[in-house]
């Protein structure tokens, strides 16, 4: 829960507190940038600057200060658009933090850090001076120092990749999982499927008829494999939204990896995500409606309803979660609360841009030719024989493999979101994301084949949740992170906020990964049964 700096009884600037203009992303993140009473004069080293004398603390001010110290709150400072960084030497390592603690508790006494020492590195150009904040300490002085760091490289100190070996280990780990799964997929496609098909196609009519009676496995469900699933509209909506979320993630991470979303431009990442999500509404509508027509064997009736619901399903749930959390933030007077005016802007963006684009995509989906099934569906559904293991157990277990490719990178992302650390290894993140997509596709494909082999033709939803179940493990990891890494979180409100935001992210991940699994399984089943010649 972020709070305004001046919610605590600190010295205020003589000219009064002014907010800097913030973009959509900054407002959504709860970043409020205000002017400070600290003044710097270029190349003028100063020490023992007296800032102001605060009034005696009232009981309320004392209570809130001790509360913020107990909760380990940090003050974040910005000079020349760079965050102030605090350096500490520990066992030969240099540890870096953005900002400094409000205070510290020693035994039963509280101390406020009210003396700051700034060291500003300056690189001289012919035409202008460039300043750079490097560290804060505990004495009242400002010191300027000449530096060789040029303007384009000034963010390097923040973005030095700590633990790059860990990122490479994460990628290596993912590649091993992928290779293992790719081997299984290859065996299924080449050995089993090809052998069965060759044998099946070489037989004469009489032998084929005889073999039909002795058939086992996936060939038995040929008349049921494309039978419409239960709740087909919901599946189409979730797949459409999943494509939209996945597209947004891939495009945003790619732009960030190419350096278009610099940390110097605060809030651009969130703004970019919102922009790409709205634009990709057209893809969500197209995919949802085309899948709807495919399941309905070309019938486009109800396409408006499907594209309208695709436009409202995920944003609606997100809106519900965020509104509930916002009431908690408003109640706590946190800067993380979304102002009412911003709520109106978000609603306008949703209904004036995202919804119409999704309906346009739906229109194109209704006009596009539907995907024809290679085999006919029987009138009467075939009975599914009793299974050794409950199929939902396999579906839940399948999520462990995609989670295995992701969990190391997950720690860095969580630290960036919740601990205020700078995350800028988007190149690694892009690679991990591509690997995750491949693993999700492979896992779902293998599981669908296993279900078809035991004559279970209800593969539609299972293929979605086989890879989508990774979301369950990510949520459990979030709970684990809350208990073991965010020990300083105070009270039920902070924990509720954390779990609420985690639930929102996990829902988005489930839709994106589930969609990858479903589409790969759909392609596989279509390919498998289009290879079979049946009378």
From TrEMBL:
Q: What is its main location?
A: membrane
Q: Where are the transmembrane segments?
A: 168-190, 233-257, 269-289, 310-330, 342-366, 392-418, 424-447, 459-483, 503-529
- Which InterPro entries is this protein grouped with? EMP70, MFS_trans_sf
Instruction: State whether keyword Signal applies.
Output: yes
The subcellular localization recorded is: Endosome membrane; Golgi apparatus membrane
Q: Which SUPFAM superfamilies match?
A: MFS general substrate transporter
Q: How does it sit in the membrane?
A: Multi-pass membrane protein
Gene Ontology biological-process entries: protein localization to membrane
Keywords tagged on the record: Endosome, Golgi apparatus, Membrane, Signal, Transmembrane, Transmembrane helix
Q: Of which family is this protein a member?
A: Belongs to the nonaspanin (TM9SF) (TC 9.A.2) family.
Q: Which PANTHER family match?
A: TRANSMEMBRANE 9 SUPERFAMILY MEMBER 4, TRANSMEMBRANE 9 SUPERFAMILY PROTEIN
From the Swiss-Prot or TrEMBL record, give the protein name.
Transmembrane 9 superfamily member
Natural source organism: Cannabis sativa
């Amino acid at each position: 829960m972020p709070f305004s700096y001046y919610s605590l009884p600190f010295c205020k600037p003589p000219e009064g507190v002014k907010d800097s203009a913030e973009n959509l992303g900054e407002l959504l993140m709860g970043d409020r940038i205000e002017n400070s009473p600290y003044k710097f004069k270029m190349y003028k080293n100063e020490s023992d600057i007296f800032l102001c004398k605060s009034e005696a603390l009232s009981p309320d001010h004392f209570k809130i200060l001790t509360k913020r110290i107990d909760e380990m709150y940090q003050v974040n400072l910005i000079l020349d658009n760079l965050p102030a960084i605090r350096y500490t030497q520990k066992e030969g390592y240099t540890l870096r933090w953005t900002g400094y603690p409000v205070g510290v508790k020693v035994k039963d006494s509280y101390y406020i850090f009210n003396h700051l020492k700034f060291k500003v590195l300056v690189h001289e150009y012919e035409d202008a001076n460039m300043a750079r904040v490097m560290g804060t300490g505990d004495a009242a002085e400002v010191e300027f120092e000449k530096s060789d760091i040029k303007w384009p490289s000034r963010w390097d100190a923040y973005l030095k990749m700590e633990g790059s070996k860990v990122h490479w280990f994460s990628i290596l780990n993912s590649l091993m999982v992928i290779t293992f799964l790719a081997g299984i997929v290859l065996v299924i496609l080449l050995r089993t499927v090809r052998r069965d098909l060759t044998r099946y196609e070489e037989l004469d009519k009489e032998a084929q008829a005889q073999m039909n009676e002795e058939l086992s496995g996936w060939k038995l469900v040929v008349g049921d494999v494309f039978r419409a699933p239960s709740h087909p509209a919901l599946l189409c909506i979730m797949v459409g939204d999943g494509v939209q979320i996945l597209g947004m993630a891939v495009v945003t991470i790619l732009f960030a990896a190419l350096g278009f979303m610099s940390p110097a431009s605060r809030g651009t990442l969130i703004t970019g995500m919102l922009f790409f999500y709205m634009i990709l509404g057209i893809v969500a509508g197209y995919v949802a409606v085309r899948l709807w027509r495919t399941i309905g064997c070309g019938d486009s009736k109800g396409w408006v309803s499907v594209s309208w619901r695709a436009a409202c399903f995920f944003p609606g749930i997100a809106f519900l979660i965020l509104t509930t959390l916002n009431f908690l933030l408003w109640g706590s007077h946190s800067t993380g609360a979304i102002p009412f005016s911003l709520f109106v802007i978000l609603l306008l963006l949703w209904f004036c841009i995202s919804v119409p684009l999704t309906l346009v995509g739906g229109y194109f989906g209704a006009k596009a030719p539907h995907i024809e099934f290679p085999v006919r569906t029987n009138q009467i559904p075939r009975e599914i024989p009793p299974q050794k293991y409950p199929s939902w157990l396999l579906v839940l277990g399948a999520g462990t493999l995609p989670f295995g490719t992701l969990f190391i990178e997950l720690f860095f992302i969580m630290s960036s979101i919740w601990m205020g650390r700078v995350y800028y290894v988007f190149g690694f993140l892009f690679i991990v994301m591509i690997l995750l997509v491949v693993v999700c596709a492979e896992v779902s494909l293998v599981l669908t084949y296993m279900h078809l082999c035991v004559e279970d033709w209800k593969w539609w939803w299972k293929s979605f949740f086989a890879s989508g179940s990774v979301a369950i493990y990510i949520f459990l990891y979030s709970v684990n992170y809350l208990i073991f890494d965010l020990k300083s979180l105070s009270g039920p409100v902070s924990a509720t906020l954390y779990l609420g935001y985690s639930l929102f992210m996990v829902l988005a991940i489930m839709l994106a990964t589930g969609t990858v699994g479903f589409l790969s399984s759909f392609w596989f089943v279509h390919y498998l049964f289009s290879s079979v010649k049946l009378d």
